[in-house]
Design brief:
With 372 residues, the chain is an alpha/beta fold. It has 2 domains: 2-165, Rossmann fold; 168-369, Dehydroquinate synthase-like - alpha domain (Dehydroquinate synthase-like, alpha domain). It is built from 14 helices and 8 strands. It has helices spanning 25-31, 43-59, 75-89, 100-112, 160-165, 168-178, 199-227, 233-251, 257-264, 271-281, 291-305, 310-322, 338-351, 359-369; strands at 14-18, 36-41, 63-68, 93-96, 117-119, 133-137, 143-148, 155-159. The strands form 2 sheets. A 6-stranded parallel beta sheet has the order 1-8-5-4-2-3, sandwiched between helices. Strands 6-7 form a two-stranded antiparallel ribbon. A hairpin with a 5-residue loop joins strand 6 and strand 7. The longest helix has 29 residues, at 199-227. The protein starts with 13 loop residues before the first strand and ends with a helix.
Length: 372
């Protein structure tokens, strides 16, 4: 019965995107009745944003308590923060800054205590500052499972000057990851029309297609601007696409994966499975590569899975190369021997949900096209 009334989590509460936006963290926390805030971030992120956040909170008469995250988003650290730090220190709001693992830990900590959550990331390498989910890892950096949170985040604050000052690799990874909502899911297929497609799935197709259009048309310029640490209209637009339009496209389509897998017939969804398989099986070899970078490489393989034209496939690969993405399995540090490729596919078949057996050959054949 509960599944009949399962809520869709479309939004992120209040969304603020502008140069200097980090200065309003205190204002937003005050609106959520915060009095003592736990701020979670990695060392580099706190070096970049900590002083701004601290001043903003103190100006709003909110006491800050900083926690430097030195692990992945893992249950051992979560238990310490959620079960010890939060109750023992009277924390009533949780704020995340930094990248994926810090933001995921922030969500897991705050939502685990039913507290308001504000995400103020220092990079947009994924859209996880928007999503109501935390990806959990083991202490030795292997993916473990996911926590699906019952409610959305209360606010997302994107200071685009801070984002532009971050390494361009992070921004480019976010653009690569954003393509997955259109390519990986198979929504680029012309067969999905408003007349034969569930409305949520069709809305996702439109929004995901918009994301692709923004990034394809403005992404290379935005990438060059980020390298120069310049906030330009193109950079702002691609930040919005990395987070907001990608987040909405994902949220309205979460319940339709089975439809996509069964109706396309000739394709298989596996770009995210490639990421988790790489991190599970080839953890050390792929440690330098980000989530979006590996997912983006998976999207290149998906172009073959969905039998896109040679022009479309090559144009996508050209764009990815222009923004510095890995172009092959070999680039990831994995020797693409037949044995290694089969090991990768074995993991891909189960790590991102169970795939039907007929997907095995599709995955293997597509990975051959990007093995390098």
């Amino acid at each position: 019965m509960a599944d009949e009334y399962k809520p869709m989590k479309f939004g992120c509460g209040r969304y603020i995107q502008a140069p200097g936006a980090m200065t309003v963290v205190g204002r937003e926390a005050k609106m959520l009745h915060g009095t003592k805030a736990l701020i979670i971030g990695g060392k580099k992120a706190l070096d970049a944003t900590g002083a701004i956040i601290e001043k903003s909170l103190k100006d709003a008469e909110i006491q800050p308590r900083f926690y430097t995250l030195e692990t992945d988003c893992c249950y051992e650290t979560l238990e310490k923060l959620r079960d010890e730090v939060v109750p023992n220190e009277g924390i009533d709001i949780v704020i995340g800054t930094g990248g994926g693992k810090s933001i995921d830990m922030t969500k897991a900590t705050g939502k685990g205590r039913d507290l308001p959550v504000i995400n103020a990331p220092s990079s947009v390498a994924t859209f996880n500052c928007w999503s109501a989910m935390s990806v959990m890892y083991t202490l030795d950096h292997k993916p473990l499972n996911r926590i699906w949170h019952e409610t959305e985040n209360n606010a997302v604050i994107l200071d685009t000057q801070i984002l532009a000052n971050a390494p361009v690799k992070l921004f480019a990874s976010g653009m690569a990851d954003a393509f997955a909502k259109y390519i990986e899911t198979g929504l680029l297929e012309e067969s999905y029309t408003i007349l034969n497609t569930p409305v949520g799935m069709y809305c996702s197709k439109v929004m995901a297609g918009t994301t692709n259009e923004i990034i394809f048309n403005k992404g290379e310029k935005a990438y060059r601007d980020c390298r120069k640490h310049e906030v330009t209209p193109e950079f702002e637009d691609c930040v919005f696409a990395n987070v907001a339009t990608t987040g909405i496209a994902a949220a309205v389509n979460y319940n339709n994966h089975a439809l996509i897998r069964t109706r396309t017939g000739k394709g298989a969804t596996f770009a995210h499975a490639l990421y988790y398989a790489c991190k599970a099986v080839y953890t050390e070899e792929t440690k330098q590569w980000l989530h979006g970078e590996i997912v983006g490489l998976g999207c290149q393989a998906e172009m073959y899975a969905f039998q896109r034209s040679e022009f479309e496939t090559k144009n996508f690969a050209r764009f990815m190369q222009a923004i510095g993405q890995p172009m092959s399995i070999r680039d990831l540090g994995i020797d693409p021997t037949d044995a290694n490729m089969h090991k990768l596919v074995d993991s891909m078949m189960t790590v991102w949900g169970q795939h039907p057996e007929e997907h095995r050959k599709i995955m293997y054949d597509c990975l051959q096209m990007i093995k390098g």
